[in-house]
Amino acid sequence: MKIQLRDITMRFDNVTAVDRLNVTIEEGTLVSLLGPSGCGKSTTLFMLAGLYQPTEGELYFGERLVNKVEPENREIGMVFQNYALYPHLTVLKNIMFPLKMAKVPKKEAEERAREMAALVQIDHLLDRKPSQLSGGQQQRVAIARALVKKPKLLLLDEPLSNLDARLRLEMREEIRRIQQEVGITTIFVTHDQEEAMSISDKVLLMKDGKGQQFSPPQDMYDYPENQFVAQFMGNPPINLLSVKLGNDLQTIVLPDTEDTYQLDSLVKSYVDSNSKLELGVRPEDFYIESDLAKAGITVEVMMVERIGRDNLLYARLGQTNLRAIVSPDVKVNQGERVKLAIRPGRTHLFDRSNGQNLLH
Amino acid sequence: MQKEALSKGFIYLLLILGSLLMLLPFIWMISTSLKAANEVMIMPPKWIPTDIQWGNYIKAWFSAPFAVYSVNSVIVLIASTIGELITTILAAYAFSRINFYGRDIIFSILLGTMMVPGEVLLIPNFVTLSNLGWIDHYQALIVPWLASVFSIFLLRQFFLSIPKELSFAAKIDGCSDFRFLWSVMVPLAKPALITIAILKAIGSWNAFMWPLIVTSSENMRTLPVGLIAFSTDTGTKYELLMAASSMIILPMIILYIVLQKYIIEGVARAGIKG
């Protein structure tokens, strides 16, 4: 089912939790709602579920306007952060519950519940109570219960946050597998960027109730539309340097040292040479340039940390600290000055006043 | 090691003394109920009767229409317990899950009424019921006890501890408020509901003052009121009174023993994380 949010706004008393959100979600895709806590992602999910009524805007499921449609008539399934299984019912009864409410004949309901249990691989646990299951198993039951009515939209509210790290990875893959097997449009709320990157077809990043960027995860990482997106995605985080732009709109003046660096493309829009800009470079987009004749940023090495395959270099340019992930083949020592070059096409330039990316 | 055993022994000694203190009146009651009339008041008191008088029980049962009283007591107990459970469940759900104007103020006022001693209400309640023409009818014994603020409070607290997500999930599953209350909340609240029912049953079974005031005819009286039969102008027949009392408390003791595991049983928090 195709989902459209048009100018969706949600206000609680004086607080605007979601501010004019416009998103179109294509049928059969898995979309993550990502953002820091309090950004409105869960509120958005609850509006999609029909548990909250949007204050303004229109919500379409397919061609149908669903603003006023009750949750049970929206053809949705939902998995909650705490799973919200009925503690007094067995696994089988839990999965059958939505069908029982829909007055599906008992025999058929049981058959469908068993089918669903097999899909999420808990068919050997049907007689247990939720308290006798591990977190991952409870999670699977919750997914089976959400899917048993054959909904057109599956909503997942931080479903992995109560699991330990190993199980989280496993369930992440499971959710992806089940979603693709069923082919259901799925919306997944998370605050974990790595989770969103790995699982989704598209990510909607939100901040303060506003949509920041809606794009495939790799695009979001490579071409952030604004500084917030660039900073939110990536670990270790992107390096930001306060810079000025020369009159030719291509030369960058670095802080403190007044060194210059040539951008490989022109800025998109005209920028006053006085305006304050931020140069953004991801740690892995730096490399050490040993050819002194070539362009680069000369920095002082503060510390070198070996992290698995790579070296994490802590460096300093004037007053600004930088992090770079570099190949361990090049030996660098503390206190040494090295030249860091930037991989082509990997520089980002943000206007500090509004955060807009001026290059992409 | 030795010290630990010593302190443990001391604790047990205290517990034994405490429970003896609680049990003594019961033991005395049973002992008296088995004595001959001339042995009841002798000094020094005798714990074990010289000649065990099982006949006291038969005599006591037939000295007043206890069969009628029992039926009345059972009717009142069942009606008021079921009635109170229904009002409590509905009120607790409303006060915990439904947002309506003035909810918290109404709830505070309700809690405030718990401060009013029951005796103060005897006369106003009597006047109300007498205006309704209910005196000496079952309604008078049942209706004033169909709701209890304490039970509502108890159950509301329990309902509040059940995560909201459960009701959201039920809503998405197509479950109405009422259906959710009966098929999810009530089963989950079983321990709390059994506690409420037992407290109510014991209170109703032992009630004396109110049934005494609102009933006048023999065939409307309840068991505790029936015990008056043994106190006459010529004195009290203690051995019979105690025999009757022992019979009356027996059902409550059995009820308590059967259901006590539910009272103590922790609340099942299964399936809910976070």
TrEMBL record, chain A:
Residue intervals of the ABC transporter domain: 3-233
Native organism: Neobacillus novalis
Gene Ontology MF annotations: ABC-type transporter activity; ATP binding; ATP hydrolysis activity
Name by which UniProt lists this protein: ABC transporter ATP-binding protein
SMART domains linked: AAA
SUPFAM superfamilies: MOP-like (SSF50331), P-loop containing nucleoside triphosphate hydrolases (SSF52540)
Cellular component GO terms held in the UniProt record: ATP-binding cassette (ABC) transporter complex, substrate-binding subunit-containing
Pfam families, per the entry: ABC_tran (PF00005), TOBE_2 (PF08402)
Automatic annotation (TrEMBL), chain B:
Membrane topology per record: Multi-pass membrane protein
Domain ABC transmembrane type-1: residue ranges: 70-259
Main location: membrane
A GO CC annotation given for this chain: plasma membrane
Cellular location(s): Cell membrane
Regions that span the bilayer: 12-31, 66-93, 105-126, 138-159, 180-202, 240-259
Keyword Nuclease recorded: no
Entry-linked InterPro entries: MetI-like, MetI-like_sf
GO biological process terms, semicolon-separated: transmembrane transport
UniProt keyword annotation of Transmembrane helix present: yes
Entries under Pfam families matching the protein: BPD_transp_1 (PF00528)
Keywords, comma-separated and alphabetical: Cell membrane, Membrane, Transmembrane, Transmembrane helix, Transport
Xref: CDD domains: TM_PBP2
Family in the record: Belongs to the binding-protein-dependent transport system permease family.
Family annotation (PANTHER family): ABC TRANSPORTER PERMEASE PROTEIN MG189-RELATED, ABC TRANSPORTER PERMEASE PROTEIN MG189-RELATED-RELATED
Protein name, per record: Carbohydrate ABC transporter permease
Organism: Neobacillus novalis
Upper lineage: Bacteria, Bacillati, Bacillota, Bacilli, Bacillales
